[in-house]
Amino acid sequence: MSQTTEQKFMALLKEQASYGEAIGLMAWDMRTKAPKKGIDNRSEVLGVLSQKVHEIQTSDEMKSYIDELKGKVTNPVVQKSLEEAEEAYDKTAKIPTKEYREYVTLQSKAESMWAEAKENNDFESFRPYLEKLVEYNRRFADYWGYENHRYDALLHNYEPGVTVEVIDRVFPQVRQALTELLGKIQSAPNQPDPSVLKGQFPKEMQEKFSLEILKRMGYDFEAGRLDETVHPFAIGLNMNDVRVTTKYDESDFRTAVFGTIHEGGHALYEQNIDPKLAFTPLATGTSMGIHESQSLFWENFISRNEAFWENHYDLFKSFAPESFKDLPMDDFYRAINEVKPSLIRIEADELTYCLHIMVRYELEKALIGGEIEVKDLPQLWNEKMEEYLGVRPANDAEGVLQDIHWSGGDFGYFPSYALGYMYAAQFAYQMKNDLDIEAFIRAGDLEKIQQWLTKNIHQFGKMKKPLEILNDVTGEGLNPDYIIQYLTEKYKKIYQF
Amino acid sequence: MSQTTEQKFMALLKEQASYGEAIGLMAWDMRTKAPKKGIDNRSEVLGVLSQKVHEIQTSDEMKSYIDELKGKVTNPVVQKSLEEAEEAYDKTAKIPTKEYREYVTLQSKAESMWAEAKENNDFESFRPYLEKLVEYNRRFADYWGYENHRYDALLHNYEPGVTVEVIDRVFPQVRQALTELLGKIQSAPNQPDPSVLKGQFPKEMQEKFSLEILKRMGYDFEAGRLDETVHPFAIGLNMNDVRVTTKYDESDFRTAVFGTIHEGGHALYEQNIDPKLAFTPLATGTSMGIHESQSLFWENFISRNEAFWENHYDLFKSFAPESFKDLPMDDFYRAINEVKPSLIRIEADELTYCLHIMVRYELEKALIGGEIEVKDLPQLWNEKMEEYLGVRPANDAEGVLQDIHWSGGDFGYFPSYALGYMYAAQFAYQMKNDLDIEAFIRAGDLEKIQQWLTKNIHQFGKMKKPLEILNDVTGEGLNPDYIIQYLTEKYKKIYQF
Fold this sequence. Notes:
The structure is a homodimer.
Chain A: H1 3-32, H2 39-57, H3 60-69, H4 76-93, H5 97-120, H6 123-144, H7 150-158, H8 164-187, H9 203-217, E1 226-228, E2 234-238, E3 241-246, H10 254-271, H11 288-302, H12 306-319, H13 329-335, H14 353-369, H15 377-389, H16 415-434, H17 437-443, H18 446-456, H19 466-474, H20 481-495
Parallel strand pairs in A: 1-3
Antiparallel strand pairs in A: 2-3
């Protein structure tokens, strides 16, 4: 092995990461600051830079470094970077260039067709695009290869190591427990009253409270910032520039407050990756599921926890409108934890959320597996919603058309959300063994929690695969018992059944 | 000529422009929004993308297109783009790669050494770096070539067509007229009282007034935005995304108000370039001097004009602190036009500004010509300041070290500022022949003025060279009579001599 080749390889990865940071900044800017007339031009610029990243990823130069260095590298960062680069190279190399190009064109067209179809509640106009997207994804899965189920090849892109076999073992257990729990909740006499949360809550005050909570969580404002947007997200441009965005609804503070904490959880992950991974493909969260476990952990396990409000309710009231002044904390706490089956995933509560995911998982698995076709989707969607959640969409806009994912060809992504819940519950259980987490939450000492997450999860970036982290932290694999136990205990107390 | 080659050439320019837009956005972000800890990483990313632009500019691919297309192109946009690309290629190709690399390293080092030297008022610590920068620039000028004066080769980078011969014809006339005028102003009995402009002026109110004026100037907020920064600038990312920045001084509204109008003038230029020049090297202002003529036109000819305040003074007072309530407009107008020789260029008034530039021009011309050396600079600077402006710096921090330009190797840049004043006066004179400009200003109908500028100047971008625009608009070349006449009339009225 030539030392020079290793340096050249890492320099090429740095070049790639640099384009990635520029692309990330452009994306952030488009969604927060950019004037609307500049968007067309900017989209073309994004196209040029994305193409460049793709070219590097699939270049002969990259291939030659991979071939030359493979099996001859001792530095673990270089070794893991090599694995990532090889996987990215192979993934693209296996798809004929012509098909890849057609697919990229289809993706961008399909996304705008989806937006229109949703707007007009017109599934049929979107159907031909979705059919093609499914067709490409079936083919890509075959190119990439799999052992048992074709859908595994797609799952691998989002949650490497997790397969249909794993999911089909755990999802039904969770579903059964959740539907039972939901039945008990719905028939409990002691229902929370969410109307107590209403009240005109000025944006500026929501922002001040959100900023304060982010700070207490350990979010570093010298390495990040909070801005307003339409569809909130967090983005790591580099580990010292990780930005959070949020959306303010003056008639419902929950959107901004829990949304900011959720994105803040993502941001803490990206801010606390080991600096030695900078400018490598390892300098980001290891998977969609582990990332989601971090946002959900902060949003639900921390900020929808009773102990959290024991400490923060007075602070909250200092920013909140008058109407909260005499609202007892218990009423507030129970209201923010109301469980109510609904049609829209992104508005779902902590309990029913996973059921929304299961509907999507089962449909996309069957689609990719060839057991159902796109034309069957609307009806199957509605039937499953009724079966799992007891609600039935009145139209496709609030049914099968609600999410953007499939229109971008993102099949295999949805399970990450539910996996994130399960990981979060497993991490939370382990954290409680290590620290008196309730005491820290009650004391407002959230940084102790952040430090635990950094030590056990964040610092590694992509140095560990998702199930490797899970095993290292909890000593076991994916185990649905923890989420079931957590939700059961939580809602038993709130709904008193 | 192969059609395909032309398309490939334009695609390569588009790629280059795309990196340019990404670099521009990163620069804007670093100066307005980016968290401080992310700056180091971002600087590296900027380095990677800048290197990429340089590589494209000097690539064999670019060279082959230039050679193949030269003399065979009919489309004028392609033709002008080809000329720009060839000039950029030749300019870089003439410098040995090794020297270029050393120079880039020197530049970034010198800039931080200058900042430190200025901070510590220590010219000697900066001297060796400045000596090397001068040495490189002398050599580069020799590589690039010139007819009469070595300094012409550097001037060409900022103001193509303008030479030492041209400047040495006009600057002395202007200087003589300005110093005579300055004498009359200083001995006039009727001095304005700038203390009437004092008063705590909340930032938010300054911002509201600035936004309103920008809007009235015809600045399109759907293709731009206004943000806060430390050293204000305007930047065109693309012609539909041209951003203005400003700085608020709550004890002196002039910084933000006139600064915003100044940068707004630059921004209007970039917003109104013909869309067909998008993604070519022509989609920007044609030179530093013409650009400055636009900002100075709006800042001085419009917003320091009496008619402007006849219309806008009530609006201003609606945002201004109480202390302005009873201030007569005439006192206000005279105060914002106070002339007072000072040491710092960027704080200079409309009249003495050009004298600051002449000090710099004469010194850098002599430096590059080899008639003086860096060690002579501090004393010569102070002597010239005393001779031209009647003030002498007490130290080098407020003397020769005040400006950043030389530390970045920008020799030949300074004259653009004074040329901008002269161009602006020539344009203003012509505009008055075409429209009743005072009436439009008085009526607050500033868009008519903007439209004239777009029609005569903005739309062309780099399709015309600076002196070509000047000739097309005014029917003559650089003529200092106009600036002299304008300033004489203006100050005669204000100072009543």
